Amino acid sequence: MMDTQRTYRIAAIPGDGIGQEVIPAGLDVLAAAAERDGGFKFQVETFDWGSERFLARGAMMPEGGLDRLRGFDAIYFGSAGDPRVPDHLSLWGLRLAICQPLDLYANVRPARLLPGVRSPLRAGTASNLDWVIVRENSEGEYAGAGGRVHRGLAQEVGLDVSVFTRDGVDRIQRFALELARRRPAKRLTLVTKSNAQRHGMVLWDEVFEEVRQDFPDIATDKMLVDAMTTRMVLDPASLDTIVATNLHADVLSDLAAALTGSIGIAPTANLDPARRAPSMFEPIHGSAFDIMGKGIANPIGAFWSGVMLLEHLGEGAAAKALMTAIEQVTGRGEVLPRDLGGTAATQAVTDAVRAALAGKNI
Ligand code: ATP
Question: What is the pTM of this model?
Answer without folding.
Answer: 0.94
